[in-house]
Amino acid sequence: MPVPVIIDCDPGHDDVFALWLAAGNPAIDLLGVTTVGGNGRLEHTTNNARVALTVAGVDGVPVAAGADKPLRRELTPATWIHGDNALGGPVLPAPTVPLDGRSALELIADLLEGAAEPVTLIPTGPLTNIAMLLEQRPDFREKITEIIWMGGSTGRGNVGAYAEFNAWADPEAADLVVKAGLPFTMVGLNISHQALITEEVIRSIGAIGNETSAFGVELLRFFCAAYDAAEGMPEGPLHDPITVAIAIDRSVATVQRSHLDVETKGEFTSGATAVDLHDMLGKEPNADIAITLDVPKFWLLIREAVANLK
């Protein structure tokens, strides 16, 4: 049976590929998509989610807008990577996928309530919406199988010295979600930097020859150019789809059970994810930390999903 999934995202180039992987793989039942301010402001991330589904010919999946800013901070969009509209590169078509009238929390609540079995939540942006859900509706905990989050890092970050962007954007929300006690997998920079967008990857996606692949190639070229300019990485890392790949096939990544804390107050480390890989603290493990990626299997899943779309 397909895994029922809700994706909470802030598209973002890599979020688009996460949506496409979920929509194009038969092992996933994509119940709904919610958006959050992160890579771009909420109006952009919400439009971009609708564009991603429109381009791929996906219909019948509700899209709802969520939090436009972090729990206790101001939003700083990642324009240096994703551009002013959070999806730089291609000309964006007007989306035909409608915006649901419900808020993100209302949509998630309705989907969880109506689901025949527990649902996997896959957040690929700041954890603001998920934190608010767990705070406001603790009665839904039993309806959530697990949370697979793209965020954090076991080492250095990409915003300042230690923090990864999604954790840095709303560390209070990340801290709350990690402490909620639900099954939690962290897909951090340490594994996502193994999913490098090589020229061979771009050519193989372009060779699929459908509308989705052509749009995807434009996204990937802009994304790689932005990473090259910002971080000296001409082969950018496609972070977010690894979360969906793990939901499809656990063998795509190795994980280590560890204790995870999120720093919220450090002058130089706010947003850092402190992963106790060597059990120095002697605390109970509370997260699965994704460590290594089966790179060929990951890109095969991406190509197969894109080929199944419009």
UniProtKB/TrEMBL annotation:
<dbReference type="GO" id="GO:0016787">
    <property type="term" value="F:hydrolase activity"/>
</dbReference>
<keyword id="KW-0326">Glycosidase</keyword>
<dbReference type="InterPro" id="IPR001910">
    <property type="entry name" value="Inosine/uridine_hydrolase_dom"/>
</dbReference>
<dbReference type="Pfam" id="PF01156">
    <property type="entry name" value="IU_nuc_hydro"/>
</dbReference>
<feature type="domain" description="Inosine/uridine-preferring nucleoside hydrolase">
    <location>
        <begin position="5"/>
        <end position="299"/>
    </location>
</feature>
<dbReference type="InterPro" id="IPR036452">
    <property type="entry name" value="Ribo_hydro-like"/>
</dbReference>
<protein>
    <submittedName>
        <fullName>Nucleoside hydrolase</fullName>
    </submittedName>
</protein>
<dbReference type="InterPro" id="IPR023186">
    <property type="entry name" value="IUNH"/>
</dbReference>
<keyword id="KW-0378">Hydrolase</keyword>
